[in-house]
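Example record

The entry below shows one chain as it appears in the dataset: sequence first, then structure tokens.
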Amino acid sequence: MSFFPKPYADRVARLRVAMGFVLVAAFAWFSQPDLSSLIWGLPVSALGLLLRAWATGHLEKNIRLAESGPYAYVRNPLYLGTALVAAGLVIASRRWLLAMLFAAVFILIYLPVIELEEQHLRHLFPRFEPYAQRVPALWPSLRSAKSDGHFQWALYVRNREYQALFGWLAGMALLLAKVLVR
């Protein structure tokens, strides 16, 4: 059962990348970091980035249902990692406005996209439904549902997750520059 109407989810799925650029611009303009906020926020965002990296090293899109690595604990580790990166950046930015903006985008854009992707996976992989019953969507379980499979650097590269690393490094440089210029 879907929470978001499919036409809405299809429409916002096309906006996801554009909204990313809007968020980056808002972040660059409105953030007001200080050393303390960086000390608290950067580790949170780094954890999110590491979760995303771990997930992409187990992900063969549209070829195999990912059930190992972080997928044994949560069905959507890439989105959870994105939320952690955003939370860390919000903490570092010291701006409630950015927190509200990130939350709105996650709820109104990312949650419908997650539903669309899960519909696609249900259609593509008959084993998805039993997997979805064992593994929570966004809040990780403390117990692994499956442990076979291992991280593969080739998948990390094929999935181009290094782009997230470069973006994160650029964001960190921007925050640090804003602290140093004050």
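Notes for this example: The mean pLDDT is 92. Helices lie at 6-30, 35-56, 77-93, 96-124, 128-134, 153-158, 162-181.
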